[in-house]
Amino acid sequence: MEKYNTPVTAGNIGEKVRSDCFITLELMQESGFQIEVLSKVNSLYGNSIKQLCIDGLKFFDIKNAKLKIQDTGALPHVIMARLEYAIKQLIDTEKEFLPEMLEENTSISKKEQFRFSRLYLPGNTPSMIINAGIHKPNGIILDLEDAVAPDKKAEASYLVRNSLRAINFYGAERMVRINQFPKGLEDLKFIVAHHVNLILLPKCEVAEQIKEVDKEIEKLKKAASVNYPIYYMPIIESALGVENAFEIAKASENVVALAIGLEDYTADMGVSRTKEGHESFYARTRIVNACKAAKIQPIDSVFSDIADMEGLAQNVKNSKSLGFEGMGCIHPLQIAVIHQNFAPENAEIEKAKKIILAFDQAKLKGLGVVSIGTKMIDAPVVKRAENTIKLAFNLGLIDENWKASLNE
What we know:
- This protein has helices at residues 42-59, 76-88, 126-129, 153-166, 183-187, 207-223, 239-243, 245-249, 262-269, 281-294, 309-322, 333-342, 346-364, 379-394, 402-407, and strands spanning 8-11, 21-27, 33-38, 65-71, 117-122, 139-143, 173-177, 198-201, 231-236, 257-260, 297-299, 327-329, 370-372, 375-377.
- By secondary structure, the chain is an alpha/beta fold.
- It folds into 3 domains: 8-88, 2-Layer Sandwich (Ribosomal Protein S5, domain 2), CATH 3.30.230; 103-342, Phosphoenolpyruvate-binding domains (TIM Barrel, Alpha-Beta Barrel); 346-407, no CATH class.
- Helix 5 (183-187) links the parallel strand 7 (173-177) and strand 8 (198-201).
- The termini are far apart.
């Protein structure tokens, strides 16, 4: 049922707001469209903005409306998201006014791809989302949970949906952090059919939550005829979650990693988080062990001091020494430091080369045991060396001819 003469709003406005718009919409019973555009680029794009809004209103079978748009450089997919949310506050409709899907955004993730860095971006702040891919994180997280104000979560869903379709992420894995259960299940309808690669599940405490997500996603995939994989990264943020980590890790074949959220975990424990991390050592090692047992990736928490790059580098090295294979970041400047310190060091690479070469030569001679110096080399050591070489190759630290160069 339509709501006439009831103004509604959508979007953001303010001195520091960029790449967004603020929409005020009112349905009328007559008079056609009354559209006002306030923008610094009105002379260049005012008519295009008006036409986009007219097309959107007509799409939803609206014939009479008063619309005011305060534009701060919003791209079409942002305007469309704001307008659709405003419209759906006034009428009941299942229609979706979707931007065209970029071909780049139909790429599929791999279960075991590298996830050194994942950059958190507020899901209701388009200025942070638009160019995030140029910083080259392994993953970009469009956050619907903690980074979005409670009264903005509903409209953020539309912006995240449109961003998944219209923004070029430059090869970064397309991730979305949904809200915690049970609201997070409602978020899924905005992302499942729009080529999300991985979904972060916050404050996960029991395996049943993963199974519930599995069921809902399968239902949505079937309805939308979707056949690409969608992976999960549950975030462990409580004492109960830590104790149930292995069961959570094994709850679905779509779980590819567990992350730990230390701010909430330390709050749950009633202790303060420190840079040294003694208070979370047990939880972090428990997460790593659960992941290794389940053969998935353990991912560490964010480092919250964006001004302390030396502290970040040391934190990454500590994280790596515990067995973590990646961590979150909250600022683009953290990405390079994370990648550099998770990457294998030259000494690690050279040692791995010698182990693999010695093992290959032993196999050619029919030997079941091989040693380097006084140390015996067995299958687990070789596998670790192979993982180091694979990682170094993917990071461009060695090329495919490394064996030949070693023999020389």
